[in-house]
Amino acid sequence: MDAMAGRKPAVVWALNISVVLLVALWLFPTLGLLISSFRTGDQITASGWWSALFPAEQTMQIRVADPDDNRVDLGNGRFMVEGNIFDGAGFAGELNAWGTSSRRLGEFEPGVAADLGDGETLTLQADGAYIWEGNDDQISGRAQRVFLDVVTPPDFTLENYNFVLFDENNSEGMAKAFFNTLTVVIPATIIPILIAAFAAYALAWMDFPGRAILIAIIVGLLVVPLQLALIPLLSLHNAIGIGKGYLGVWLAHTGFGLPLAIYLLRNYMVGLPRDIIENAKVDGATDFQIFTKIILPLSFPALASFAIFQFLWTWNDLLVALVFLIDASGQTTVMTKQIVELLGTRGGDWEILATSAFVSIAVPLAVFFAMQKYLVRGLLAGSVK
Amino acid sequence: MNPALQGLITIIIGVGGCVGYFYGANLFLDKVLFRAEGPNAGRNINRANQIRPWLFLMPALLALGLYLAYPVFATLRLSFLERLPGNEYAFVGFDNYTRMFAEPKFMEALRNNVLWLVVVPAAATGFGLLAAQLTDRLSWGNIAKSIVFMPMAISFVGAAVIFKLIYEARPEDVAQIGILNHLYLTFGGDAPRQWLQIPFWNNFFLMAVLIWIQTGFAMVILSAALRGIPEETVEAAIIDGANPFQIFFKIKIPQIMSTIVVVWTTITIATLKVFDIVFAMTNGQWETQVLANYMYDKLFRANDWGMGSASAMIIMLMVTPILVWNVYNARKEMQ
Question: Any idea where the ABC transmembrane type-1 domain is (chain B) (predicted)?
Fold first, then answer.
């Protein structure tokens, strides 16, 4: 029965490994973006996101605290500076080894007192605490440099999200675009469903001349590229005074979403049992009652599938928003447009880019995982005959 | 007015308007226009039932006509006109088309689009079929499928950012943060490459984004088709001594051929219209132009409506065979 996998363990192993590879190939791109969105800009440029999950070993050069401000007089002409090397470095880690010269990195173990000549010593502990001791001349002027070989634990921050979503001073923030996108999406999802449901019922269960031709036309319109609609409709919107704005984009999304909506819903409604509808007719129900009381509740799965499609499509759309919504003032920008702008202006700031992109991806992903069942059903109703 | 409030009002007006229209028009038909009583009750009911479908269809037909059918003709008309100052138009015949075909950037866009049309549907369908077959009998197959399907939910723009991070190149002496350059250097590459700036090959790096997104779609549909194959045909082949590859290519593939064609054409349509990926990643630089982005350039940057419409008509022309084929199949199926 299990022809491809066979029963041989080797084949089963090969199968599992190839699927793991496939899944990895499809998962890692998104994972890279997600992980990057939790790292600071410095971390992102210092190492690839794939190394962020593991403790990182790195060498760095830090000076101890300024001796003129911090030294303590020990008497007998001896002075000392005490502190932690990680203070002010913005991170903490565990010291593997350290040195005082770039030529001899990792010369000393943590806890060892390094002799710097003429009685000057520096002791560095694994946790970064140090004591630097010497005479008046030695413990003054420029602070001693140390070269650290540290292991930093995986370190993630929510700062990027805070900056991108909640920082009032960030003119390139995503908060406004997020609400604009939401404002576009909700009416653009709800209105076509209602219009399409009635049309689909008429095409599925009402008999009238021209029905077959109408269905054929709708199948044809399914593939008409919306590129053709841009200029004629923008001119039309300008001519009737809608111009660029939410109303225009809602209407456009409604129009562009209708063929798929009608097609999906009709295919589903046609499959509903004929008996129920005929019994209702015999009992004296009108078409309107049959539609609202029987067809609509039974068609919930198809309605949900289309709602998800339309939601994903309008949320992720760039072209329709560019043409019908976003005017020169930029007040109505949506997230996709905002990200394209950021790609231009902040091309190298991956912490901003990754976080902004993930903010826009997060909602559709949540919807996807929550409603996957309906999405799959809808796809199958639309494609498999 | 606050857009959120405006949105809420639109939902209420839109939904209320739709419900009101359907309910009101239906009531008007039954109670006012053709009352189901009196001497003509029977005839009136029949008449009302003849009109009712059109009542139900009206809003949809209006929207479809205005937003999809009318633009096809309007764009066709615009493609033969030249826009003059002062909102006037002059008929120029095929001038827009000849000018367009003389432009190297258009020929580049056409070449790239053909390349996309050949590679993306084939690769996405192929990977989808592979994923569907491999995960078919796997205990954790559904989780694997979910993950391969997931990019469906990600916008082209989001995917563009994701893949830009993959293709990122940094100077040779610092750590590479783009995984492609990291792997390239690890496996013996000499210096980090700017993958999106290598003419011709960069097209394939852009296509990878769409393939990554569309494979899940192909997988879901082909997986359902594979499950629909009658078990007996496979069992018979096993008894006859067919090896797994023979079963896959000679028994399973022929039985799901019609579904493969549907998947292939659906992805072809999506590929033809590809815009966001190119717009966000290269904007047509380094010889990566495609028709949809070329058209956007002409319409909204060069403000040349004639040539923009002409290039839109080229996209329409490329869709037409699939359109005809779909309509033909739909009609055949209904009979």
Answer: 110-326
